[in-house]
Fold this protein.
Amino acid sequence: MRLTLFAALAVTTAVALQAPPGQAADFSPHVKRVLETYIRPATQAFAETSATLPPAAEALCSAPSDQTREAFAASYTKTLEALGNITFLRFGPLISDHRLERLAFLPDARNIAQRQIRKALTDQDGTLGDPAALAGKSVALQGLTALQLIAFDSDSNLTLGAGDDKEALCAYASAITRNVASIAGEIAAEWQDPKGYSALLLTADAGNDQFHSSKEAIETIFNAQVTGLIVIKDQELLPALGTGKDKAKPNKLPFSRSSNASAYMAAELEGIRDAMNAAKFEPNLGSDAAWIPGSLNFEFGNAAKTLRSLKGPLRQTMDAGATYDKLNLVAIQVNSLRDTMALNLAGGLGLSGGFNALDGD
Amino acid sequence: MLWTATKRTAINRRSFLAGLGGAAVLAGSGWNGPALAEGLIGEIEAPLFATACKRANGSYALAILDDAGQILAEVGLPDRGHGMAVSPDGRKIMAFARRPGTFAMLIDPYDSKEPLVIASEPGRHFYGHGCFSADGRLVYAVENDYERVRGVLGVYDVSGTGAQRIGEIETGGIGPHDLLLMPDSKTMVIANGGIQTDPGQPREKLNIESMDPSVAYLDLNSGDVLTQHRLSRDLHKLSLRHMALDGKGQVWVGGQFEGDLQQMPPLVARMTQDTGPVLTEIPDQLASGLQSYIGSVVANRTGDVVATSAPRGGQVMFWSASTGELLGAKAVIDGCGLAPIDGSAFLISDGLGGLRYLEEPEAVPDVLAQVPGMSFDNHMFAL
């Protein structure tokens, strides 16, 4: 396995550089830096941003106007970007209590959310408007993906606050936004809690049930970043790109219904990049690996810039202009980012990843 | 999550759909709900799949999934699992510890009784795979008789309430791994991996230079080895481990090479009882990244395509059952588990919690689910 091979080579290098013979490299300063300068601020930012959604939805519903529509759309986009910054943190507070799926039910290749929402609305489920009741319902009904389905039409127009079923949808939208803000608050609070999950990461040693060494703690964070890149490519981009331009399915892009696909995916890349920079791995890398962080930053920047250059609803622009080619380019860039992180950077640091690849049978 | 080891937490389909993930139900403490099912099959026709897995907190379990990639139930395992025997009616599972584990667990997802933990015989450990008899009354488990350095099939009677070990059959080699019951219901095909191990040195390989892997066709009634196929002598370090039966009655086997990885030997072969192994060709460009390691081998329902996963290379390769040609390969990082789904499609699981649906080898896989914190283990089974 390439990864193991690199990792094996790199362990020698990293240990030679970093630690006295027989002693493993200490990654606890890196874990602490990612926690303090990335995870806590980013989850706090998501909590603060999502707190703007309930008033924005309620203002739009009580007095629909260009102004309240724009304010809601802006709040929704900012919330998705703040979520995009942290979705790769698939461990600890974001995944306990199914929070990630409750915030955004993705992927949803079988349109489960759409079917469940239709059914709940047809059944006139009166508890849809109750945030506490909603938090106990299907995860597909609870979060920002459900909000997108009821607030935007399939042509990406913001329709919340208009139409015959305005009242039911507004009540439901309000409950979703409160539920999202509440989940976001819980995530931020748990990451801030010095005795919570961060204590597990920071006290990694033989006596710690979950992380037996600081290497295991940093691997949890690092491998989540790598998985985040795989999600962007395999789950978000490739199924939408299909086998060719004429087979593209732009509706499969995340949050494309609300024209937020490019902003969301750019935010995902920026989050993974910023967490990597927060770790400050440079001093651990030998001269032969010193190029990696700079190169990764350059590639992350290019991919995010390409995504940010795509304006308007990609659902409508996919077959026009260069949108398809640009998204295809981003998929290639993200693949290269994955390789550079999982093979070169992990190798340079002596980290390992994979489950089946690492130790099969 | 709050599953205790060996304690079943199951979710019935109704509450699952009501809670899709029954976020509340799943998160609830110690809810030991009704069996997976209670009319599940009659209620909603959904194909189900089972796989061993590692959970976010580092514990091991067997997970039951539906065709949308949603986890319907998890059964905690005492340690890392591997493969399982699924009864012909799809209603019973005997899950095995990964080698050199000593537990197996008999699970009835459609019943609310506790799973039954079975310990291997003294002097034996499980190798991770097993197979039901055609009538569903017996389970054959591959085991290591490590003192006499021989592989055996432990035979368990599971027709009553428990599991009674009623005998054993020699497999004709060392390190038996995957096994397939042939359509005649009396011939068992065993992949003897050829690697000698001893629980005193868990996962150490003791006989690489003298490895002698084979695929043996056994007569279950007499215990006789009917046929034993080997690759050519220069491939004796290719441990033959995982198999599938295609629609033409050919057995496909995938290997894991214990020699110099620079050699890039062939990794996949097909054979019948009467015809010796025919090796497939993997183009160099693809082969160079595979680390000479095949993880799972599975045929689709129509039996015309065989998939082989190469988790160390992050690739799944697809083969034509009729011509033996490579139809295509898909990149799936850490992908290993494979199961047939729908008419001719495959479900692919990976160590990062991903579940993909692939309609045909030329298509782009659709990610059905990306289960946070979950690592799906080597093999997946359709129930």
